[in-house]
Amino acid sequence: MAGENPVTLPRSVIASKARLSDPGHSREADSDIRDTEQSFLNTSIRTLRSINPIEAIRALSRYNGVFSTAVHSYVQLAMSGYTLTGFQAGGHQFDLGLTAAANSLAVSTDTLFDYTVGYADKQGLNSTLETLLKEVVQTGSCASELVLNRFRFPDRIIPVPTTSINWKSKTDGTKYPEQVPTGSGGDPISLDIPTFFYSASHQQSNSIFSRSPMEAALQTVFVFSEFIEDIYKILRKSGHSRTVVTIMLEHAQKTAPPDVQGDPEKLKAYLEETRRSIESLISGLEPDEAIVTYDTAKVEILKTAGEKSDYTALLDSFSGMFATSLKSMPSTLGMRISGSQSLSNTESLIYLKMVSSIQTPVEVIMSRTFTLAARLLTGQDGYIKFKFNPIDIRPESELSAHRSVDQQRILRDLSLGFITDDEAGHLLGTGPRAPGAPPLSGTMFLDAKGANDAGQTDGAQERTLNEGTENGSATSSGGGADK
Questions:
Q1: How many angstroms separate the CA atoms of 86 and 373, rounded?
Q2: Partner of 12 at 20 to 30 A CA spacing, among 85, 232, 311, 450?
Q3: How confident is the model at residue 185 (pLDDT cuts 50, 70, 90)?
Q4: What pTM, to 2 d.p., does this model score?
């Protein structure tokens, strides 16, 4: 097949080593790889106001519970499974060889390694997809490189942080990316190579730089988090009851020794020592322990009194704004906002549409990656379409009936000859048919009288109703035989 459909391979690429630097560490031999990402644990939300928006989004994805839940939900729902389908470049027809080559590469990322090189530093395909999807949520774009081995065959796929990419213009009006090295520095690395792929989501026409869909939530999350921090401070200061011990000064003075009572300095030191001993006693009390004192001290419970602000309505308002800016449903973020059942169904549908939007750049990246890989492996002039499966939040037990309908539709197309036997096996997930099996495409095996036709009328119940009983019946309208 390679001789029938020759393909022009990419121009010269350096295959002995990856042109792209691996994210997060340098290439120095035996150098320690350290976690250089800044930590914002136990830091006020006000600190994130002054840093780069992408860095703030990455930090919030780690340290803010609501923000992290939104990002994680997007990625997990978008991981709905995938299909790889190969097509011929000229006729756009299904090609079994290209499909098998693409699936072989996908399998090799998870299972097949070169055991002679030691540790297999190759990320699984599902992990790669999770990284790319998360990159789209956090930055609005994603990028990857198809690393080739010394035989110029596909070896692995490396996700690339788009924040490390700069753009350079060409004289013909086009552009190409270059990577700015991290860590120890160095010269920029040109990415004007055919094995590097980039795609952006909701790209603006007046800018080549991508924008995260979560960027609009930054202002709201700052206001919401600062509001929570202020409520926490108020609660710590005046929201709890406190134990107050009042030392009766006259009684305490009488308990002092005679030589101390006549000396003001000694009396002052004696009263201070009495205060510290009572403070130490009260601070170390357990909840179930009682307080027993002489009449030198008076114990009271101080409670908040007077006007008390109700922040419930304001908190609900901020919660709704927060969920809207994160383009997520309040229920997925753990926020309780009242609404009808019909409104909830509409929110679910819109939310699934938003989640599917982050799949598009990843589908573009993986389609181009697997197309190049399949061409290098087979030499055929074709292309690969990488497609995520439709997102469905229903359990598997409820989807079996819908899959039966899809199966019937595929078999109907096969019966009418709209798809080939190999394409039907690919769509059904069964693989190619067994050797020697008769071809089915276009044979009309699902005609009106076929056993698999949903409208058959020759079953036992149908014959009984049509022929009637021996004496006839109301159901058969006198269709029984006359005696």
A1: 12
A2: 85
A3: low
A4: 0.73
